[in-house]
Amino acid sequence: MTDRLITHLRHVDLAVPDFDKQREFYTNLWGLTQVAEDNGIAFLAAEGSPEQYIVRLRKDAEKRLDLISYGAHDRAAVDTLAEQLAADGVQLVHEPRDVDTPGGGYGFRFFDGDGRTIEVSSDVETRQHRKIEEKESIPVRISHVVVNSANPEATRDWYEKHLSFALSDALTLPHLGDLMYFMRCNPQHHSMAIARGPHTSLHHVSFEMRGVDEYMRGSGRLLRAGVTKVWGPGRHMAGNNTFSYFLDPHGNTIEYTTELELLEEDHWHPSHYDVTNPETQDQWGTANPFNELVAKESYNDVDRGCFVAPPV
User: Fold this and answer.
1) Residue 53: which CATH number?
2) Which of 139, 170, 239, 280 suits a disulfide with 273, CB 3.0-4.6 Å?
3) Is residue 261 part of a domain?
4) How far is it, in rounded angstroms, from Cα 220 to Cα 207?
5) Is 263 found in the same domain as 161?
6) 132: closest CA among 242, 252, 33?
7) Under a CB-based contact definition with an 8 Å cutoff, are residues 34 and 77 in contact?
8) pTM for the complete prediction?
């Protein structure tokens, strides 16, 4: 197993035109807690997570993915990674420095191969969190993020080379090739995945629930509230996790999940799952079919933030 400098996914930051509507959705319906606000920026935490926040919302005229943030072991790991990326010609947004968002810390930002802004930080203060109780249908933590790429093979290679992510599994379509790569930075089956799409964009953000009952209760709450369901409920083959996908008010796909597989990394060998097998997409057979409409929603809008760092 490779010694990695990155440890885990911290948060995903979104810019949206209708800030108040988006914030109300993520707090009152999705189940996150606002812990701080600063001039059109809201920091939203999961009650079960030690992370200061797992979603940041920023008011902007254009919808975009601001950044994806990962944790590192310590300041030395941050410095080492920054030096390695700069030596490899990766464009840094800024050098390692003190972080001024909730919880502080030490980190830097850079562009990945598709132009997304990535942040890596360490020494962020742990947030006081709590155990999520039985039947409490709110997210425990952020699970993973999936991105679209017009060249997923190159994006996969980039993350393997520069950030030491490893391939866990892939989805493939016979005679056409691979459709999605599930990538890990720790024993969790995937902290990110790379999907083949027509353009660079956010595919979906996934949130871990306490268990299957809480996952179903949360899914039901959204359905009763009239939130658009994209796909689910079901259980994937790759990762063996449950899924229910919904649209937030700005058309981003977000997921409730639970029971994502933990791997014995030293003994794991990736599989390429054929998506023409119905059980690959949904072992249970309870989800609506994955069709062109589902795929279209997951493509999302073209990301306007490629190689343009967010202002904050």
Assistant:
1) 3.10.180.10
2) 280
3) yes
4) 15
5) yes
6) 33
7) no
8) 0.97
The last residue of one of the domains, among 66, 87, 122, is 122
Q: Are residues 192 and 288 in the same domain?
A: yes
Alpha carbons 287 and 230: distance in angstroms, whole number: 10
Amino acid at 62: E
Coil, strand, or helix at residue 305?
coil
* pLDDT in single tens digits along all 312 residues of the chain: 458 999 999 999 999 999 999 999 999 999 999 999 999 999 999 999 999 999 999 999 999 999 999 999 999 999 999 999 999 999 999 999 999 999 999 999 999 999 999 999 999 999 999 999 999 999 999 999 999 999 999 999 999 999 999 999 999 999 889 999 999 999 999 999 999 999 999 999 999 999 999 999 999 999 999 999 999 999 999 999 999 999 999 999 999 999 999 999 999 999 999 999 999 999 999 999 998 889 999 999 999 999 999 999
Rounded Cα distance, 275 and 290, in Å: 10
Distance, CA of 135 to CA of 117 (rounded, Å):
36
Q: Which residues contact 88 (CB under 8 A, 6 or more apart)?
A: 161, 162
Q: Are residues 80 and 115 in the same domain?
A: yes
Positive or negative, the CA dihedral 213, 221, 34, 68 is positive
Structure tokens at 86: 């700069």
Residues 6+ apart with CB under 8 A from 215: 137, 209, 233, 242, 244, 256, 257, 258
* Of 116, 63, 123, the residue nearest 97 (C-alpha): 123
Give exposure, 44-73, as e/b (b: 16+ Cβ within 10 Å): bbbbbbebbbbbbbbbbeebbbbbbbbbbb
Q: Give CA separation, 122 vs 53, 54, 129, 227, 298, in Å.
A: 14, 15, 19, 36, 31
How many whole angstroms separate alpha carbon 182 and alpha carbon 167? 6
The alpha carbon dihedral of 288, 244, 310, 147 has a sign of: negative
Report the distance separating Cα 190 and Cα 196, nearest Å.
Answer: 16
- CA 261 to chain CA mean position, Å: 16
